[in-house]
Design brief:
Layout lengths: L2 H9 L10 H6 L17 H10 L4 E2 L6 H5 L4 H8 L4 H6 L20 E4 L3 H14 L3 E4 L15 E4 L6 E7 L11 E7 L4 H10 L3 E2 L10 H7 L6 H4 L6 E7 L5 E5 L4 H7 L9 E8 L1 E2 L3 E11 L2 H19 L4 E7 L4 E9 L3 H16 L5 E13 L6 H6 L5 E3 L10 E3 L9 E11 L7 H13 L4 E4 L9 H8 L6 H4 E11 L13 H19 L19 H6 L3 H11 L28
Parallel strand pairs: 2-4, 3-4
Antiparallel strand pairs: 1-2, 5-6, 6-10, 7-11, 8-9, 8-10, 12-14, 12-15, 13-14, 13-19, 16-17, 18-20, 19-20
Helix pairs in contact: 12-13, 12-15, 15-18
Bound molecules: flavin-adenine dinucleotide.
Flavin-adenine dinucleotide binds next to β3, α9 and β10.
Length: 605
Amino acid sequence: MDRRDLLKAAVAMPFAASGPTAGVLAATTRAARRFRPADPAWPSPNAWEGLRRRVGGNLIQPRALFADCQTAPKGEACHEALKNLANPYYIGDQPSGTQVSGWLDAWSPAPSAYVVAARSAADVAAGVDFARRHNLRLVVKGGGHSYQGTSNAPDSLMIWTRAMNAIALNDAFLGKGCAGKFAPVPAVTIGAGAMWMDAYDAVTTKAGRYVQGGGCTTVGVAGLIQSGGFGSFSKHFGMASASLLEADIVTADGALRTVNACRDPDIFWALKGGGGGSLGVVTRLTLRTYDLPQFFGGASATIKASSDDAFRRLVERFIAFYAQSLFNPHWGESAEIHPDNRLKISMVCAGLTDAEAVAVWRPFFAWVAASPGDFTFTDQPDVGVIAARGWWDAVARRKRGSKAMIFDARPGAPPAHAWWEGDQGQVGAFLIGYDSLWLPASLLDGAQQTRLTDALIAASRHWTVLLHFNKGLAGAPEAARGAARETAVNPDVIGAFALAIIATGGPSQYPDLPVPPLDLVRARKDARQIDAAAAALRAVAPSAGSYLSESNYFNADWRRAYWGANYPRLLAVKASYDPGGLFTVHHGVGSDDWSADGFTRLARA
Ligand SMILES: Cc1cc2nc3c(=O)[nH]c(=O)nc-3n(C[C@H](O)[C@H](O)[C@H](O)COP(=O)(O)OP(=O)(O)OC[C@H]3O[C@@H](n4cnc5c(N)ncnc54)[C@H](O)[C@@H]3O)c2cc1C
């Protein structure tokens, strides 16, 4: 037995445990830095072989997503990768796949040294143990949708949960240790690597129930829950993480814990919006399911104003209309306020009939139509509903030739695998600038509407402002708001009527992808415009928080912005379950103990 094996035996932990124990502290070291492949202390080939055996052969040495286009640009592998560049399912299926291709002056995709393509919680635990014992940089990837590159770390060992995607519904779920404390509720248990489309297909299309997840169908379930998580109907059902009933998580000591409100309640709370990749590897989640409304629907239109003055009146009128008629659990999704004086409306509704939805919008569209000199519909109003059960029914949508969804056309792809046409622009995009802030509902009160309008117009002179109404919980049912209070997300979300997002990206810039280089001067100028637009909006919401998964990579105030008063409690959870800082991501809980690349513990830590 060599020294490494001795150490391994000394720190071996039982695979199942509950509650943080002295073992967590004993098993996690406070190493000063993590090793890279060039370091003499990097694990030997034998050690890697041992890990490969422990994970049933599922250890990969990945290449960059488009590496083949560098080595053999005319080869079949490069051709295949280029053909699938716009397919988010293909990207998600690649160990080095990231759904965005990087962020200007922030991060660029780079493969890990090794990837455990985990099939089970035991594989995950083997990877965690290996990284801890050999002092490696560890990174966790599910759906790969992190804008901030937090599932990407060169020279790391990655745990990739893609294959852990089993889904099972339960009519009466009761968390472990919760008998007598809670009543059983309908629920769905989902493997951490599943995508939301798989959950919607199982829960809504096949079983006629509802589970709150994300809007983008290819986002990973575990990543979104740990972000907080919003979908189109969150104004009706609340934040996705607020529906979490139980999770299985492998913590830094390699122990698999089943956590819920009755067992390990602190880490359970922290998983609900405390940010992915900071606390452990979630292997399975159980989420509450809800009765499905009879109808889901939407309203869309684009209106162009003929002058700045007319545009200001249009935005003011729309805000007043929103406050009066849409600020309720039925209506979510977005409106866009564009620099060229266009207002684009892409709203969705839950629980209204066709006639009810049409009646809601009639006065606003009539007001617009009454001033043809001032306003033109560049996209005609379209309001309607469909049976809610068909919303994510990709097979039915494909049969009737729907253009709203794009389908994974690869041979053997599951028929339910589709994505919204509206999300296509984000697949592989390169981010240039991004910011977000929760706008308090007080801005919808009487005279405040004028201030809000002025700020929206001022911001839109710099860049397009998107108002995501479904990502603010003011106007949602009290039960949804109450459940959100039991999460780690910045409480600003509860009092906000919308999350304002200001962002732009360019064409894919994956390393090795044969594309023209970005115009950096222009891109940096655009990024400053986004900063200016966000500053103009902050004039009316100076201390507004920001949604951690859709926010500014460079936000120096990230602890307060993401979690507000919840941050100290999150730090305490981190200290209990990961005292050695094995899990670290950009702007994650406790990440300021580490250098930006996550390899060096900072002296003050
Ligand atoms: C195109 C696009 C659309 C989006 N749409 C929405 C939306 O509609 N609503 C919304 O709320 N957000 C949305 N987001 C943001 C998204 O929810 C978050 O980025 C989320 O964290 C992505 O999860 P993932 O598993 O896909 O990504 P990953 O990049 O794999 O993971 C994200 C983070 O979670 C960690 N993580 C992943 N799996 C685990 C696990 N099993 N255990 C522990 N940590 C884990 C990773 O380490 C990483 O830090 C979108 C992002 C993109 C790129």
